[in-house]
Design brief:
Number of helices: 2
Largest sheet: 5 strands, mixed
Strand content: 35-45%
Structural class: alpha+beta
Distance between the termini: 32 Å
Number of domains: 1
Oligomer: single chain
CATH topology: Alpha-Beta Plaits
Helix content: 25-40%
CATH architecture: 2-Layer Sandwich
CATH class: Alpha Beta
Order of helices and strands: EHEEHEE
Radius of gyration: 12 Å
Length: 91
């Protein structure tokens, strides 16, 4: 199966609510690889890699996030790189 890589920028109340850890859990359950991080502008960024179905599933998850999050929008663009796991990265 071909791999798809997408970059996500998530806006709203997404820091301090467990977003990154919840995303790791969701991504690993879906079978995705990539990374997630908090940004200085109070957004969360992620690069996700997997089948088109898997990537679409995490994008839908990101539009809601964990229960404490209030997602306003998710920008999706082409991503790049090769990943073998899903991790939190620092700035």
């Amino acid at each position: 199966m071909s791999q798809v890589t997408k970059h996500l920028k998530i806006y709203g109340r997404v820091q301090g609510v467990g977003f990154r850890y919840s995303m790791i859990y969701a991504a690993r359950n879906i079978g995705l690889n990539g990374w997630v991080k908090n940004c200085d502008d109070d957004t969360v960024e992620a690069t996700v890699q997997g089948t088109e179905k898997q990537v679409n599933e995490i994008i839908e998850w990101a539009r809601k996030g964990p229960s404490m999050a209030r997602v306003e929008s998710v920008e999706v663009s082409e991503g790049f790189g090769q990943y073998s796991s899903f991790e939190i990265v620092s700035h």
